[in-house]
UniProtKB/TrEMBL annotation:
InterPro entries: AP_endonuc_1, AP_endonuclease_F1_CS, Endo/exonu/phosph_ase_sf, Endo/exonuclease/phosphatase, ExoIII-like. Keywords: Hydrolase, Magnesium, Manganese, Metal-binding. GO terms for molecular function: DNA binding; double-stranded DNA 3'-5' DNA exonuclease activity; endonuclease activity; metal ion binding. One of its GO terms (biological process) is DNA repair. The record marks 272 as: Interaction with DNA substrate. The keyword Hydrolase applies. The record marks 242 as: Important for catalytic activity. It comes from Polynucleobacter brandtiae. This is Exodeoxyribonuclease III. The keyword Nucleotide-binding does not apply. The record marks 173 as: Transition state stabilizer. Its cofactor is Mn(2+); Mg(2+). Residues 9-272 form the Endonuclease/exonuclease/phosphatase domain. The active site is at residues 130, 171, 272.
Length: 281
DNA sequence: ATGGCGACGTAACGTCGA
């Protein structure tokens, strides 16, 4: 019997508001016999003490959290029954956890990494990432974004050497190519698509990471984020800025990569859709 | 069409996201 896991990422834009949808999505995926074994969340917008451990544990998931009030905040959620040993202990489930980029002092909670051992699979190194937005190329926030990207690249080089089976999942706030933008002519040089950001994305690829989504045939105009304004979703005026990057060792094991637009259609949705990659043993 | 939506904090709007 072939063993596989589904790993996913979702920028929920406030877990306080979106918890019911996270639970619904996890439940529907499981019911459809496509359970999510690991879910990396971004933009929790809550401190650690507000995290809904109880509700998610009751649904069968264990949680590692790097929270922050108001902005940012990331988590890794794993399905207990998919683990190699059905632990209920966070310390033994999430091995070698890392919060933030080592050596890069930052108040903003944007990186959470841990190694997880699923039943039937070699250990997986999961990195839940919320890249800075950048606001606009002439802003201080953009300079922060570029500095952060360099720090990430330098850290991941080491992390990949130590953990060959690595997945980087989350909201990259970069549309890697013009086909990831609904109207590229309107976006030339702007935040999310600028030459500097795309060069930084390419440097991550050059470390030995692959954009799992582009390993498979996809329908044109596939996006992961749509502006709440201007009826962005209804017009499919979106961007593909959420990604699952896989190391070479995982790339060969990946059997599917997709964006699930369904939750974006629900009442009071996040502006991002969840993304999924399937990894075979 | 440069604001439009939505969440947050603090208490009727400003700030931020992308």
């Amino acid at each position: 019997m072939t063993k596989s896991v589904r790993i996913a990422a979702w920028n929920v834009n406030s877990l306080k508001v979106r918890l019911p949808q996270v639970l619904r999505w996890l439940g529907e995926q499981a019911k459809a016999d496509k359970p999510i074994d690991a879910l990396c969340l971004q933009e929790l917008k809550m401190s650690d003490d507000k995290y809904p451990h109880r509700e998610l544990e009751a649904a069968g998931y264990l949680n590692l959290v790097a929270g922050q009030k108001t902005y940012n905040g990331v988590a890794i959620i794993v399905r207990r029954s998919a683990l190699a040993s059905m632990s209920s202990d966070i310390e033994t489930t999430f091995i070698n956890p890392i919060r933030n980029i080592p050596g890069n002092a930052d108040e903003q909670q944007r990186i959470l990494a841990a190694t997880v051992c699923f039943s039937g699979l070699q250990p997986l190194r999961l990195v839940s990432a919320y890249f800075p937005n950048g606001q606009s190329p002439d802003s201080d926030k953009f300079a922060y974004k570029l500095g952060w990207l360099t720090a990430l690249e330098n850290w991941l080089k080491v992390e990949l050497a130590n953990n060959p089976r690595l997945a980087l999942l989350g909201d990259f706030n970069i549309a890697p190519s013009d086909i990831d933008v609904h109207d590229p002519s309107k976006w030339i040089g702007q935040n999310l698509v600028s030459v500097d950001e795309r060069a930084a994305f390419q440097r991550l690829i050059d470390l030995g990471l692959s954009d799992s989504f582009r390993m498979f045939e996809q329908v044109p105009k596939s996006f992961s984020w749509w502006d709440y304004r201007m009826m962005g979703f209804r017009r499919n005026a979106g961007m593909r800025i959420d990604h699952i990057l896989l190391s070479d060792a995982l790339k060969t094991k990946c059997s599917a990569s997709l964006i699930d637009k369904e939750p974006r259609k629900w009442e009071q949705p996040s502006d991002h859709a969840p993304i999924i990659a399937e990894i075979q043993a």
